[in-house]
Amino acid sequence: MTVHGAQAWQSFNDRNAGRPADPAWYEGVPEWLEYPLREWLSRRLHDDGWRQQVMARLRYIPRDRYWYGNNAQGVPTHSLLEWVDATLHAMIHSTSYMGMLVPDYVGKVDAVLRDGRSVWKVGKSGDFLERRHDSTVTAAARETTESAVRAGRDAGAAHLQTAWDAAYRLHPDPSTAYREAILAVEAAAIPVVVPNQAGATLGHVLGQLDRQGHLYQMAINDRSGVSQPMTVVVQMIRLLWDGHTDRHEGVTRAVPITREAAQMATHAAVTLVQWFTSGAIRRR
Predict the structure, then answer these.
(1) Any residues with CB less than 8 A from the CB of 278 and at least 6 apart, and which?
(2) What is the 3-state secondary structure (H, E, C) of 2-67?
(3) Rounded Cα gap, residues 129 and 114, in angstroms
(4) Which residue did the predictor score with more confidence, 72 or 118?
(5) Contacts of 36 (CB under 8 A, 6+ apart)
(6) Torsions phi, psi of 227, nearest 5?
(7) 3 state DSSP class of 218
(8) Which of 86, 141, 159, 173 has its CA 20 to 30 A from that of 274?
(9) What phi and psi values does residue 212 have, to the nearest 5 degrees?
C-alpha cells in the first residue's frame, strides 16, 4: 500500500536492476530495526526522569541495579515497541528542560520506523505509536475531521480523533474507541435531525430517521432523480447503536467491545460524520 509521506526507498542495486520497490510493511521488530530502535531508546533513556518513569510504568526490574539504559540492554526485542511507545508518552508529557528537543526526538524515531517499513508510526499527538494506514484512508478521516470543524461541530471532530487514536494505538482501548465513535456521530447528526430535543442521543436520531425519514434527503438520488430514502443511513446508525454492547450492565450482560468492532465503528463514524456535516444529509 502507499502510505502518506512514506515513499518507498530502493537500494542502488535494486533500482538499477529494475526491481520494484518493496511494497510490504512489517509487523513486530524485524532484524534491521532492532539496532536503530535500541540506539534511539538508549539515548532517550539517559534522561533520569524519562528512564525512571518508563521503568516504573513498564514494571521493569533491571539485572544491574545501576542500569542507565545503555543500548536498552536487557529489553527483549519483542518489547522494544512497548518501550518506544512508553518513552514517547514520557517525553511529550514531560516538564524536563530537554522539552524543546522532544519534537526532533519524535521525528527521528518516526523516520526510523518509516524507513524500516514498520507497520507502526508515531501518532498525531506524538505520545504513542499507532498502526499505519493507506494514505486514502487517512486522508478521508482527516477531511471528515476538517469538515466537522468547518461546520462548527468541533466536538464531533474531537470525538472522532479520540476514537481513531483509541482504536489504532499500540495498546488499543476498544471500549473508548466505540464510545467516542458514537459521540462523534451524535455531535454531527443531532443538530440536523433532532436539534430541539433536550438530552438527545444517537437513539433519538435513529428513531426519528426510522419513523420520519421522508422529512430528510440525501445528496444521492435514484434513477428518477428523487432523493434516496434514509434506509442505508438508518441501517448504519442502528449497526452502531445496537453494537455498543458494553454500554450498560443489567438484565442483559454487557459484552466487551473487540478491537475489530471498535475499528469498524470508527470507520462507520467517519462516513456518517462526513455526511451530516457536509450537508449530504439534510432536512427537506
Answers:
(1) 147, 151
(2) CCCCCCCCCCHHHHHHCCCCCCCCECCCCHHHHHHHHHHHHHHCCCHHHHHHHHHHCCCCCCCCCC
(3) 12
(4) 118
(5) 112, 116
(6) -55, 135
(7) strand
(8) 173
(9) -130, 45
pLDDT tens for 78-135 read 999 999 999 999 999 988 767 788 999 999 999 999 999 899 999 988 999 998 876 6
Cα torsion angle, 24, 28, 33, 36, sign: positive
SS3 199: coil
Task: Report DSSP letters for 109-163, one per residue.
Answer: HHHHHHHTTBSEEE-TTSSSEEE---HHHHHHHHHHHHHHHHTT-HHHHHHHHHH
Question: Are the C-beta atoms of 4 and 135 separated by less than 8 Å?
Answer: yes
Q: What angle, rounded to 10 degrees, do the helices at 80-92 and 31-44 form?
A: 30
Cell of 182: 458514537
Rounded CA separation 243/10 (Å)? 44
Residue type, 52: Q
Distance of CA 145 to the CA centre of its chain: 12
Task: List, by residue range, all CATH 1.20.120 domains of the chain.
Answer: 135-283
Q: Return the SS3 of 93.
A: coil
Pair 50, 44: CB distance under 8 Å: yes
Flag whether the pTM goes above 0.70: yes
pLDDT band with cut points at 50, 70 and 90 for residue 56: very high
Going by pLDDT thresholds of 50, 70 and 90, the confidence category of residue 216 is very high
Span 135-283: which CATH code?
Answer: 1.20.120
Bridge partners, 257 (sequence order): none
DSSP annotation of 282 reads: E
Q: For residue 133, give Cα distances in angstroms to 110, 137, 174.
A: 14, 6, 18
